[in-house]
Amino acid sequence: MELLFSASKIAEKVETLGLQISKEYQSKDLYILVILKGSFMFASDLVRNINVPFQIDFIRISTYGNKDMPNAKPSITLDQIIDIKGKDVLVIDDILDTGNTLFAFKELLGFKNPNSVKLCTLLDKSCRREVNVSPDYWGFKINDGFVVGYGLDYAEKYRGLPQIYVLNEDEIRQR
Ligand code: IMP
Ligand code: MG
After folding, report:
1. Which sequence spans correspond to the domains of the chain?
2. Helices 7-24 and 40-47, interaxial angle, to 10°?
3. Which fold has domain 7-143?
4. For site-directed labelling of 153, which of 32, 62, 121, 169 has its Cα 20 to 30 A away?
5. Best of 5, 95, 119 to mutate for ligand 1, by most ligand atoms within 8 A of CB?
6. Is pLDDT above 60 for 128?
7. Across all residues in the chain, what is the average pLDDT?
């Protein structure tokens, strides 16, 4: 695998993002919604750079159909306990790839009457986008290629690496 972003480069970017978010949510009712598992490391670093009050919650999204049926909409179940009515929701995810997951999720959140919903992803692989969705806040735009580390996995491996790497062709059996 090849190094893509060093720990210090990530830290620098996360600090900038935190400041930007803090500025824009100064007089809002910020509700941070972290998508597990991939964004756990990014989110925990990011919130330490956010200096306005916020609520935080964590959710796991199950996406089905992407592999076998590329055109199928992901089926998402949303935890009933989440109460975001009137809140300014900031969804934090690791990477925006085809966009199918967050596109469907954003639509679902809309039914719960939040004041606003914005997306923050550490990585944006916009060349792979299949639906009309883009992050409001992002760390790095990247080219195609499978990335791991800093929370991101390949078959549940590499999540603990402090830096972000691109896997080589021979390291990827199938996606
Ligand atoms: P999307 O619905 O295609 O945007 O899928 C997004 C999800 O796929 C992300 O939240 C990741 O969990 C996973 N994913 C997409 N690309 C990568 C990658 O390069 N490395 C690790 N996970 C990825
Ligand atoms: Mg994910």
Report:
1. 7-143
2. 60
3. Rossmann fold (3.40.50)
4. 32
5. 95
6. yes
7. 91
